[in-house]
Amino acid sequence: MNLAGLDWGCIAAALDERGCATTGPILTDSECAALIATYDDDARFRSRVVMARHNYGRGEYRYFAYPLPDTVTSLRAALYPPLAEIANRWEGGFPPEHAAYVARCHEAGQTRPTPLLLKYGAGDYNRLHQDLYGDLVFPLQATILLSDPNEFEGGEFVMTETHPRTQSRVEVVPLARGEAVIFAVNRRPLKTARGTAKVAMRHGVSRLRAGKRFTLGIIFHDAK
Description:
Order of helices and strands: HEHEEEHHEEEEEEEEEEE
Structural class: alpha+beta
CATH superfamily: q2cbj1_9rhob like domain
């Protein structure tokens, strides 16, 4: 895992401007492969969701159980502090360390871990959605592509931005293996001629035309 070279000034500027930012590869190929290899280990997960059963799309995902894999724990702990600085500019009220925020979630009854692995095959997709699991919501999250993008077709990460009196804006984000896209979970501030507005953000994955695609979702709030 390599986060030392991240330019948080550029990431913050992109999040302010577009609601999403990419990092370049932060996980090695071997780290990506190791996470993919956990998918069939039932002991590592608390639940499995088949998207078609809930009209979420097609494909499936699994939520990790505590204790999380070391890589996932490290990503949550390392990404949270600089993201909390951005979140506090947007909303305010977030502690500087992730452990303190998780403790706050657990005190509020949100005790189930939310990091997840997502698995897509040909024809699979994920409808536009927001990852809200309770009253406490950290406003930023990350998705990391674990698969080699040369081994599948389609399956692009997609975001939409919607606010009153304006048609929705779409952002398609290509990723390298091990690269993260950091993005707004629910709403983000947008400067307008009349001041600052809150715009609604949703994310999803376009239809995979061929191959397999695995991603890691890093969500910082826990679930009820």
